[in-house]
Specification:
One of its GO terms (molecular function) is transmembrane transporter activity. The chain is of the alpha/beta class and about 250 residues long. Helix content is about 30%, strand content about 25%.
Length: about 250
């Protein structure tokens, strides 16, 4: 398993007591597998994602990323692990306004110490994979919401992560663009062989995922198998509906 959460318990201070956000949660996601985590607001979805991303240390339990347990790692070691092994797609793209689409990706590789030429080549490969090779020179204000989210996803894949964690990628998109983004995430998960966790409140696109898990009051219901995962080598290259992501106005 590329991502394993084992008996995770996470609490927050709440006056004189502590509020339980996650209660002995366990989850395993294999390479090339896409698991959707759903549940009402305040159920613990975002806390689960933050723990999996090593952004929050749980009270108890174990997080294992690509065979490496995060227990006892220093802050610097956790930062290095995130940079090398984890791609995070936040709900808001948070792109840098002064950088082009290609530069948004290149800066991630430069942080990791890659040479500019190789970083440029990798950035263009990923932009092509998400259907934005022709938009590489555009800045965020020149892109539609769907296009910005695609850049966000490509940026998260820039350093070839083992684990991909995605927070509410369709919350700001209409149904058509949301469906296109979920389709893209599914195809890239299989093609890049990442262990992907998708946190969402939107159940309309769940038929595309491999498994679905539900969080209620901090407890995770056992994942329900949605459909058998496909082998990466059997998948065609991503097909992008540009008509769904073209800038409006």
């Amino acid at each position: 398993m590329s991502l394993r959460l084992t008996d995770i318990t996470l609490t927050y201070p709440d006056g004189d007591t502590r509020l339980t956000a996650l209660d002995k949660v366990s989850l395993e996601v294999p390479k090339g597998g896409l698991t959707a985590v759903v549940g009402p607001s305040g159920s613990g979805k975002s806390s689960l994602l933050a723990v999996a991303a090593t952004l929050i240390t749980p009270d108890s339990g174990t997080v294992t990323i690509d065979g490496t347990s995060t227990t006892g790692l220093s802050r610097g070691e956790l930062t290095d692990l995130r940079r090398r092994k984890i791609g995070i797609v936040f709900q808001q793209p948070n792109l840098i306004g002064s950088l082009t689409a290609a530069e948004q990706l290149q800066v991630m590789a430069q942080i990791d110490g890659r040479k500019p030429r190789s970083a440029r080549g990798r950035a263009m490969e990923l932009l092509d994979a998400v259907g934005l090779a022709g938009q590489a020179g555009r800045r965020p204000h020149q892109l539609s919401g769907g296009q910005r989210q695609r850049v966000n996803i490509a940026r998260a894949l820039m350093n070839d992560p083992t684990v991909l964690l995605i927070d509410e990628p369709t919350s700001a998109l209409d149904h058509g663009r949301g469906a296109a983004v979920i389709d893209l995430i599914t195809r890239l998960t299989h093609r890049q062989a990442t262990a992907t966790v998708l946190v969402t409140h939107d159940r309309t696109h769940l038929t595309a995922v491999d498994r679905t898990a539900e969080v209620h009051d901090g407890r995770l219901h056992h994942p329900v198998h949605s459909r058998p995962p496909e082998r990466p080598q059997q998948l065609p290259s991503p097909v992008v509906r540009n008509d769904l992501i073209a800038p409006t106005g």
